[in-house]
Amino acid sequence: MPSPAPTDDRRPFLGRLADASQPYLYSAPSLVLIVAVMLVPLVLGLSYAFRDIQLLNPFSGGFVGLDHFRVLGRDQDFYRALKNTLWWTGASVFLQFFLGLILALLLNKPFAGRGLAQALVFLPWAVPSFLAGLNWAWLFNPVIGPLSHWLHALGILSEPLNILADPQLAMWGPIAANVWWGIPFFAITLLAALQAIPNDLYEAAAIDGAGPVQRFVSITLPFLAPTIAITVLLRTVWISNFADLIIVMTNGGPADRTQIVASYIFTQAFRRLDFGYASAIALVLLAALLAYSMLIVLLRQTLLNRN
Amino acid sequence: MASIEISAVAKSFGPFAVLHGIDLDIADSEFIVLVGPSGCGKSTLLRMIAGLESVTAGEISIDGRRVNELAPKDRDIAMVFQSYALYPHMSVADNMSYSLRLRKTAKEKIAAMVSDAGAKLGLAPLMERRPKALSGGQRQRVAMGRAIVRQPKAFLFDEPLSNLDARLREQMRAEIKKLHADLGATSIYVTHDQIEAMTLADRIVAMHGGVVQQVGAPLDLYDRPANLFVAGFIGSPAMNFLDGRYAREGAVVLPDGTRIPVAPRENLAEGAQVTLGIRPEHVAIVPESPMEAAVELIEPTGFGIILHLSLHGLPFKVFTLDREALKAGPKVPVAFPSQHLHVFDAEGNRAD
Amino acid sequence: MRASKILLTGAHRLAILAYIAVALFPLYWLLKVSVTPNRLLYSEGVRMWPSRTTFEHFEFVVAHSAFPTFFKNSLIVSGSTAVVVTILAALSGYALSRFSFRAKYWIVALMLLTQMFPLVMLVAPIFKMLSPLGLTNSLTGLVIVYSAFNVPFATFLMQSFFDGIPKDLEEAAMIDGATQFVAFRQIILPLTLPGIAATLGFVFTAAWSELLFALMLISGNDAATFPVGLLSFVSKFSVDFGQMMAAGVLALIPACLFFLMIQRYLVQGLTAGAVKG
Q1: Structural domain that includes position A28
Q2: pLDDT tier at A5 (50, 70, 90 boundaries)?
Q3: Domains of chain B (ranges, CATH numbers)
Q4: Which family is this protein grouped under (chain A) (predicted)?
Q5: Of A2, A10, A15, the CB nearest to B54
């Protein structure tokens, strides 16, 4: 790695500058794009949280201070959406991770046709999210989909009805679609981490008399732990922001039972065209997610320090 | 070909100083070997000459021209890496011609130069292969070919043989020496293997802790090591060291009272703390010697025999070609011929 | 011992088959409905395969809807985004992999931050910024927005591929007479082809799927991408399941093709990163 500029460098200033600016030149195009299309709009969007921005109201645009947040504090729909977000994110991440881990372990074992099997089980990831949503909505639809009939036959549903229309069960629809769609992400990342574990560790453990379960607990898990921590963190943040499936499948209904914060923001912004209020909610969500990430990183740091 | 001057060159990575004021003049077509244990700074010095590391202080010149600020590509040097660093996506011929193509050499000339270098290294039948399809030794040759093909001012070698097995290493060592005799190119060769250093070098630069310990012809370093580090590093099995006190009439007195006669040294005071050094191959086994050492272990190497002895609890080794030593009893009479004895003062420097 | 081993192997294969079945079943169903004639749609709703199949839905979608336009728009947008992002990410990923410089930490932090906030929040500001430039309702505008969204992850992906390539190689090239940029282009990039393929495929799939911004920045059929078109299809012909699913099957094809080509490189790229970490 080219080290920082030497102290005794007799080149003209421009020559040294050209050298030192090399990494910046490589990263400049990406940075310009990110700053212009993400950072600037983000700051603008944050400022909307303190202004009255309604697309259809020409008299809007004024500074309203913390008004949006005061309204938000009394907004029962927001609290329900918050509760739904926890439920949606927790269930999705847990099931995706758990089923993804099993899949990764299955695929880490060599067998004939592994390449093909891997390509097929990872396929759902390539399905566009809106299409995954539509697809599952159709599967749950008793008119053309088999799922409700099967659930009825299994005795889980008393009648073959569309669970997306049932306030008690509706959330399971998007969660099922999300799990189906997201297992490959976990499986791919965990499989990559598994393949990086040196094989002689397992051999040494086997010679030392460790059974399969002990090997999993004492070698596989510790090796996977950093990957698990970072993937779960990233996915949690990502899934709490992920409204596509809900918007496509239930639009937050029935009776707001599947409304999560991200889809609530969408509703506020594009159904009611109240961008100020939507930005205020988004700001709260962003703060919550940042706090969550900090907490996880801190937790990891303390755990690492203790070892 | 070119001369290289290194004056007061220092290098630090942040707060860590890895090289402290190195001075070295390398003559045209000289073969210099930088040798030392890992972490001694020899590779860093080589990479600074190549232009892959910046120079923190001091000056490096090639043919009298300061190159500190010159990019590697403008220094006209070639380098053979430990990993060979062959371009995996290019054939052997393309690997060797890459530098010429970058310099926009004429096509016919490139073809001639590449086939010439290929022939020199016995690579002719492999020219269209990819590096993946070559053995370790063949890859090493391609790396050499890539370096010689463009006739640079100097060759830099960064532990080029350490990924080869012992037999191949010996063979390539000889080939490098032959090649140098042929081309007469200025060469700087980094290794941690003292045999490579001894066999290849016109001059060896022994380094330790970022400091040059001694510069000299291989036999100089072997015969007259400047300090304990060089004495212990050059030669295998390594030199024996025995601590003792200096007696002015010409002896070193070991802790158990044994007096070992040495030639008088000018700069040592009576009773000074010294270390006595003698190479295992120089310890004599003589029946009439009054000094008897206990035999701890016998290691036959085929070529000779290494005896691990103990002299009143002080361990030392003897290397002998005499097969009789295999039958050595519990005790052997040994002698330390004074012309082969090295004396080092309390700071570890050679005392003459 | 032997019997239990056979049992274990059998359980392993069964589990794999179960995963494959679950992964493919929804797609299979999509295909099944898309070839079921309307007459049989309800009477044979839960049959695994209709008694008679037809391609009439596909014919209708291709010949009598704006579908070909959507398809073309999506191809242009996703293809351009993939190319732009891959070039940018190769450059910035290389910077992160090979240089240590003061702002590196901040660049990584910025890129991580962009993965964190709700993109919904950006819709209004981006709309306001793009509309005076005439970039709303245009494919170029979409390409710019999608490129920005995908560059951070693609940068990390490319970085992990670069990290897997020994530094010796470009040092050798620089000694052979190349500048660092030439070494990057002629030595490092050709060796990163799997990484480039993975990044291209990843970004293509992501751009192909994007719904929110396509919905907000584009009005009218001319510049609509596939997701928008399909959604308008859903609201317009909400009873014609056969046609919707036929359109869905067609939407699936490019993304799946791309994915099947690149999926093994994806695991490779992530492994390279894991080894380094």
Answers
A1: 1-39
A2: very low
A3: 4-232 (3.40.50.300), 237-344 (2.40.50.100)
A4: Belongs to the binding-protein-dependent transport system permease family.
A5: A2
